[in-house]
Design goal:
Chain lengths: 445, 228
């Protein structure tokens, strides 16, 4: 069924003619706006079709290159993050981290499960808007602590207790917008952590309260280094928009690591217009960021983490081949936890959706207990079993990435390079800066 | 007994390193910081009840994230003075630039002169007493704590305020969204008197008006769209 009650299977297309300008989903949105008088707020990432890593393919080894044996020859996956200035850079076993998601947006059990899975795989998790919970510190051997514009729950003891600090300037789902947590999720505990009245619709600031612009950011980074005695790597996370300038300014400001979140990045809640209409697809953003680093001779010196719609080993391998040092996953690990799984179908129906289509993270009524603060719903996510699923998923991504790297003749996944890639569409060739398959043509070059 | 620390000799890093190395049991350390020359990040991340007297002007984020320490600046302060302060006392004998006390969660910040824009922005429990006036958008999105302004408040005071309380002795003619004049309870008046005394100001509490949240923007409502 569509949003206006039409079952596409029952439409006689010979009899009915759909408007290209006003198809059923557009009609439904206009009428929803007319009824409610406010923009749509929802969770997840964009639902529109965007260029993705699927539009690239690897050139496996043949006569001109030789591959490594898939089950015998080593293909390393480790990565060091924050080696530029920090005394204690992170050394992860896999180049796949778990992105920042707040306690508030997701449940305590979800945080715990992600922490256990990341620890088992030798990688890092990240806090989120709202501060650090003891559950995630205890479950995550390596924890990145976010400092966001809202500064909810920011505590110098947590800065000292974390393993890296991530200054968040923006995220791919809402470049230029602040966070949002609707009242149903602002529980007593969440409200106390954020110093807010319980049950309010929380609107986070979109700009940091005590700095504006890259020169100020330099001093802010220095402050965080001073407080942590130069031990912790400082990440700077930003949404992919004016990538070249923003990456270079972050490097100039002193970032150890740049985290770039593409347009496909997800969220717990924001305006639909942000999700669908602001930002640059991850595919294009990676190439721009790598070129920006290369211009400064800082590629591989300042590490680049890419996020936003990374789903599979091929996605990971292609991002690394384009020059990223690591990737970060949000929505995909929630799906591994159970998001949109075909269970509790009646509760999806109560939200007006069904498994495979749900984006109701913002409501707090998550049928599978992930994006909720409701104690009864949260019980549906059993942390140990959920951690095992995420561990399995991360393990699969790693194996897939190694498989592709070996096929290209690489003994470390970081040895993948743009030369290993071709594009399957003209658009992807232009965005990724690799030749269209079967040609030596890169549009615009 | 004061210990002299010359920033020209040890640098900001040297000072902060020593500050962080103070053992938890120390309660009577008193340091005099010479030659600050407007340097940034002086005495950030303090975590013990040490007393610091900084003899001169300081740059950005002086006393940032302070816990327990008693820090006095005998001069003016740059942007983000005592940002995200947790506890202790920070006093500036001169003026403070923008975002003083930003996101502060506890403790007392006293600015004897004026404070620029966004004083107390996103404050989360800190008490701030300003002897002079504050600039525009002060107490923007202020969540908890008290901002006392003995002079005037600039435009947009308390925009999108939550449960923080603002006391202004002079004029506050341009209030931000959802910020209104409120009746002052006896407990609030007593709290004001106590804070003024601690800050060293001798003003009649009757001269102050209280501002706080109308709580109309706590939840989205179509009829409030023009206020967002």
């Amino acid at each position: 069924m569509t949003d206006i009650g039409i079952n596409p299977d029952q439409i006689d297309l010979a009899e009915y003619r759909q408007s290209a300008t006003f198809p059923p989903n557009v009609i439904a949105e206009i009428q929803r706006a007319a009824d409610q008088g406010i923009y749509e707020i929802r969770g997840w990432g964009p639902k529109r079709k965007l260029p993705t890593f699927d539009d690239l393919a690897f050139l496996g080894a043949s006569l001109s290159r030789y591959p490594l044996e898939g089950y015998r020859e080593k293909c390393d996956t480790d990565v060091v993050l924050g080696s530029r200035f920090a005394k204690k850079p992170l050394h992860l076993k896999i180049p796949i981290t778990i992105a920042g998601m707040s306690f508030g947006a997701i449940s305590s059990n979800a945080k715990r499960a992600l922490g256990h899975a990341a620890t088992a795989m030798g990688t890092a998790t990240t806090t989120g808007d709202g501060g650090m919970t003891h559950e995630e510190r205890e479950s995550s051997e390596t924890l990145v602590y976010q400092v966001l514009p809202s500064r909810y729950g920011v505590d110098p003891d947590h800065l000292r207790a974390c393993d890296a600090v991530e200054i968040v300037i923006g995220q791919g789902a809402k470049p230029g917008g602040g966070g949002m947590l609707l009242g149903l999720k602002v529980s007593e505990r969440v409200a106390a952590m954020r110093t807010l009245p319980e049950g309010i619709d929380q609107r986070s600031a979109c700009r940091h309260p005590d700095w504006t612009g890259p020169d100020d950011l330099t001093i802010k980074i220095q402050e965080l280094r001073e407080i942590t005695d130069y031990e912790k790597p400082i990440f700077v996370k930003m949404a992919a928009t004016r990538v070249r300038f923003d990456v270079q300014l972050a490097v100039k400001a002193g970032a150890d690591v740049v985290v770039l979140d593409g347009m496909q990045g997800g969220t717990g809640a924001t305006q639909d217009v942000f999700i669908e209409h602001v930002g640059v697809p991850t595919l294009a953003a990676v190439r721009e960021a790598v070129e920006a680093l290369e211009e400064l001779d800082m590629h591989r010196k300042v590490q680049l983490i890419v996020s936003g719609g990374i789903r599979s080993g091929p996605d990971v391998a292609k991002a690394l081949a384009m020059g990223a040092d690591a990737v970060s996953l949000g929505t995909a690990v929630l799906i591994a936890l159970n998001c949109n799984r075909n269970i509790y179908v009646e509760d999806y129906a109560a939200l007006g959706t069904k498994p495979g289509f749900c984006h109701n993270c913002h409501t707090g009524r998550c049928p599978v207990g992930i994006t909720t603060q409701d104690p009864e719903l949260e019980k549906r996510l059993e942390p140990d079993a959920a951690a095992r699923r995420v561990r399995n998923y991360l393990s699969t991504l790693t194996l897939e990435t190694q498989t592709l790297a070996r096929a290209c003749g690489k003994s470390h996944v970081h040895n993948l390079e743009p030369e290993d890639l071709v594009a399957l569409t003209v658009e992807a060739a232009a965005m990724a800066g690799v030749p269209l398959a079967g040609t030596s043509w890169i549009p615009g070059r | 007994m004061w210990v002299d620390v010359d920033l020209e000799a040890v640098g900001v890093r040297g000072l902060n390193e020593r500050l962080h190395a103070i053992s938890a049991g120390v309660t009577d350390a008193r340091w005099r910081i010479r030659n600050p020359h407007g340097l940034h990040n002086i005495a950030v991340g303090a975590d013990s009840p040490v007393s610091l007297l900084i003899e001169g002007h300081v740059g950005y984020y002086c006393a940032g994230m302070n816990k327990l320490a008693n820090i006095t600046v005998a001069g003016h302060a740059g942007v983000g003075l005592a940002e995200n302060m947790m506890s202790g006392v920070v006093r500036v004998q001169g003026n403070a630039s923008s975002s003083a006390g930003a996101t502060g969660r506890g403790g007392l910040l006293v600015i004897e002169g004026d404070a620029s824009s966004r004083c107390g922005i996103s404050m989360k429990g800190i008490d701030i007493v300003v002897g002079g006036s504050v600039g525009h958008m002060s107490a923007f999105m202020a969540q908890a704590g008290r901002l006392i302004v003995c002079g005037d408040a600039g435009p947009g005071l308390g925009d999108s305020i939550y449960e923080a309380e603002i006391f202004v002795r002079g004029s506050a003619d341009d209030l931000g969204a959802d910020c209104i004049v409120k009746e002052m309870s006896r407990e609030q008046r007593e709290g004001l008197v106590s804070l003024l005394q601690r800050a060293g100001f001798d003003h009649d509490p009757s001269d102050f008006r209280l501002y706080g949240s109308a709580r109309n923007l706590y939840n989205f409502h179509i009829d409030n769209a023009a206020s967002y």
